Amino acid sequence: MMMNVTSVKVGNILEWEGGLWRIIKLQHVTPGKGVACMQLEMRNIENGIKTNKRFNSSEKVDRVVLSQSKMQYLYEDGGQYHFMNMENYEQITLGEDMVESAMAYMLPEMEVDVEFYEDRPLNVKLPQTVILEVVECDASIKGQTATSSYKPGKLETGTSIMVPPYLESGTKVRVNTETGEYMERA
After folding, report:
1. How far, rounded to the nearest angstrom, does the alpha carbon of residue 143 sit from its chain's CA centroid?
2. Which of 100, 110, 102 is CA-nearest to residue 74?
3. Are 119 and 101 within one domain?
4. Which among 29, 2, 32, 10 has a CA at the least distance from the CA of 128?
5. Average pLDDT, rounded, for the chain
6. Residue 47's CATH number
7. What is the pTM of this model?
8. CA–CA distance, 127 with 146 (Å, rounded to integer)
């Protein structure tokens, strides 16, 4: 499916130069002179090679259309992540490179979408938001509830996140999985 390069998102799979590439990072670059462009950091799915490619903002790229299957994340075992299909109970195992963008927000028994290309699993897609518990953060300081400053906190998955100063350990929060930002208390 051809689409404008400015419409791609992190996690999308592109067919480029005869291979399948997963977008790891993207940045919209607008120089003072010249045409705006998209800087994409991509990883080849077959061989794991990373590359940075700058596309003109008017260019079109070929996004691979993937089929999705609702699956439940079961457990991790030595860098291998096990998932179960919610319809037929078949289990699949994905390597760390397939789930690297989702690992920060996945807990056992969480339902995710696993994307397939010609019956081959390629990507794990999380819901837009997840609810996780803050297990570690600095103590709140009295009178700081109205300030806009944030403090570092640690989620139950081990991921660091910036949280408001009034939050305490043990609080459940809603986190945006695309940006990794705190949204609200849950």
Report:
1. 35
2. 110
3. yes
4. 10
5. 88
6. 2.30.30.30
7. 0.73
8. 30
